[in-house]
Design goal:
Elements (H helix, E strand, L loop, with lengths): L1 H16 L2 H5 L11 E3 L9 E5 L3 E2 L4 H18 L2 E3 L2 H10 L10 H10 L4 E11 L11 E11 L5 E11 L3 H12 L6
Parallel strand pairs: 2-4, 2-5, 3-5
Antiparallel strand pairs: 1-7, 5-6, 6-7
Helix pairs in contact: 3-6
């Protein structure tokens, strides 16, 4: 009975989080909550050259922040709406400008870095938290993550897209962060 209850909770959480798997399961789009907002200017350009900045906030390591940024870049490429500046170029500019991975926290700095990278837009990722739900005490690797995403125009400093993502995974923080990223990017092509 406990396993059935856990399965029900996992499926309910997937629906509540608005994960892309929900639509693949045949759940009507109107039942998935809106977790994003986008500017009308966002849809005026078919493809954006974008730089994904390293994630800030409550990540557990620099490596985890880099992995999340790489995953975000890959997820954006899958949409067909973005070309993504290579993370090596982003890292080089950050070093040259003497920023640490946790140093890019404001919109003005992000826009300046985007200009230096030749990007039309930048993506900022802020991890709000990574937690373990005590309900899953028999699964020590279970993690839940919440993050915020902003895509900002380098030309106008306008926020083009803003979203919150929540995700859960039973194999650790990285999976929960990826799930949260997928949820946050769900509205890109909507």
């Amino acid at each position: 009975m406990k396993n059935v209850l856990k399965l029900f909770i996992v499926l309910s959480a997937a629906l509540a989080a608005g994960c892309s798997a929900a639509t693949k399961l045949g759940i009507p789009e109107m039942l998935i909550p809106s977790n994003y907002a986008k500017s009308p200017a966002f849809d005026l350009k078919p493809v954006w050259r974008l730089a994904v900045l390293p994630a800030t906030g409550r990540t557990t390591s620099i490596g985890q922040a880099a992995n999340l940024s790489d995953y975000a870049g890959m997820a954006l490429l899958r949409t067909g709406r973005f070309s993504v500046v290579d993370r090596t170029a982003v890292d080089q500019i950050l070093r040259e400008q003497e920023f640490s991975y946790s140093g890019v926290v404001d919109q003005a700095t992000a826009v300046s870095l985007g200009r230096l990278l030749g990007a039309e837009a930048v993506m900022m990722i802020t991890v709000a938290g990574i937690t373990h739900d005590d309900f899953w005490s028999d699964m020590p690797e279970q993690r839940e993550a919440e993050l915020y995403v902003k895509i900002i125009s380098v030309e106008t400093s306008e926020v083009l897209y803003s979203a919150v993502g929540q995700g859960s995974d039973f194999n650790g923080a990285e999976g929960a962060l990826r799930s949260a990223m997928e949820t946050a990017l769900w509205g890109i092509n909507r």
